[in-house]
Amino acid sequence: MTAMETNKGPIQKLVEHLMVLGMSIMGLMVLGNVILRYVFNSGLEISEEVSRFIFVWLTFLGSIIALKTGVHLGVDTLVRRLPRRARLVCYWLSHALMLWCCWLIWKGSWELTKNNLHNVSAISGIPVAAMYGSGLVASALMALILAGNLWRSLRGDLREEAVSPEAEYSVSHEQEMPGSAR
């Protein structure tokens, strides 16, 4: 078991399991629909609609996991050249901006969820608010992650790669390609 796997909390494990379940359901529905259309000249009308709902949820759940594990894309060429204190200030500012974005996502998702509570999708009958609720869940969990990162940075428990100019992204010896020189 790797260090990444041992640091997973119950919420992260739940989100990952939900993502696997969603991908499985979506894949089976789409595959089944393709087979039904081309082999039997029929199809499941509900397949496209439910797959779209699941896809929206998968996108938001994936963004939570990406934030938690620190794998979102980032350009830090300038920040890595700054002194440690300036890097910390940039870290705090970026997290404050991300928290503000979480608030904006929450606010917009809340309004959309409220406005669509009584609207149902045409074929499946699923409330449209269920799709917009994904923004509520994602923004709340991302805000908790960001607030936790800020708290750890204030306590001095911040991961060194977040503020160290020497930390580079490299392939570990476990992930090294066969035949590559070290």
Automatic annotation (TrEMBL):
It holds the Pfam family DctQ. GO terms for biological process: C4-dicarboxylate transport. Its main location: membrane. It comes from the Bacteria. It is found in: Cell inner membrane. Residues 27-155 form the Tripartite ATP-independent periplasmic transporters DctQ component domain. One of its GO terms (molecular function) is transmembrane transporter activity. The keyword rRNA-binding does not apply. It is a multi-pass membrane protein. One of its GO terms (cellular component) is plasma membrane. Keywords: Cell inner membrane, Cell membrane, Membrane, Transmembrane, Transmembrane helix, Transport. The chain crosses the membrane at residues 18-38, 50-67, 88-106, 126-151. Part of the tripartite ATP-independent periplasmic (TRAP) transport system. The complex comprises the extracytoplasmic solute receptor protein and the two transmembrane proteins. Belongs to the TRAP transporter small permease family. This is TRAP transporter small permease protein. It comes from Aquincola agrisoli.
